[in-house]
Amino acid sequence: MLLVFASRQSIITTMDKSWYRNIFSRASKPALETTPPALDYADAESQFNLGVKFASGAGVNRDYVQAAEWYRKAAAQSHSLAQFNLGIMYAQGQGVAPDAVQSLMWLGKAARQGDAGAQFNLADRCHRASFEQVPVDASESRIEAYMWYRLAAAQGFKNSDSVCATLSLNMTRADVAAGNERVAAFESGKAHSAAGR
Questions:
Q1: What is the DSSP letter of 171?
Q2: Which domains does the chain possess?
Q3: This prediction's pTM
Q4: Which of 64, 136, 190, 193 has the smallest number of CB atoms closer than 10 Å to its CB?
Q5: C-beta pairs of 181-185 under 8 Å, 24+ apart in sequence
Q6: 157: phi > 0 → left, psi -120 to 50 → alpha, else beta; which?
C-alpha cells in the first residue's frame, strides 16, 4: 500500500468528514486476479456442485427440491454423478415424488457411463428382482446383476467382489459365462467409444 501525504490545506478541508469515514466510505475495487470467476450455470459440473450444495446444506439451507433440479440439469448433460444422485433421489423420494422407473433410468445411464456406485446399485436392484420373478426372468436378472457387480468390482467398489462371488454360487455355469460375455462386451464398447473421441 502506498501512503501519500497531502499539503495542510487539503487536510483541513477533509476534516469536515472524519478521516476514518473517508477511508472506509470508499468502495474498494478488488484486484482482477482475486475476483472469483462467475459461476457458469450452464456448465454440468457447476450444476452438479450446486446440487451437492443444496443436498448437503453446505452454506445454504438443505433443499432437496433445488438439489434435484440442479442434478437434473447436469444429468441431462450426461454428468454421471448427477445421474446417480438423481436416481437415488427418485428411489428415496427426496425432492421429487418417489418413482422407481425414473430411478432405474437415471441409475442405468450413470452405470452405462461407468459410475461404479451406480453399477453396484443397479446390480443390487437386479439381484433383488431375481427373487420376485419367474425362474426364466430370475435367471436373466441374476446375469444382469452379475455383470454390474463385476464391472463395479473392476473399479474396486466396496464389497462388489464378495457379493458377486456369492451371487455366482446361485447361478449355472452357462449363466456365469453369459454374465462374463456381457462384461467383455460392455468393456469392449467402452474402449470403442473412448477410441472414437
A1: S
A2: 44-112 (1.25.40.10), 116-195 (no CATH)
A3: 0.74
A4: 136
A5: 182/143, 182/144, 182/147, 183/147, 183/150, 183/151, 183/154
A6: beta
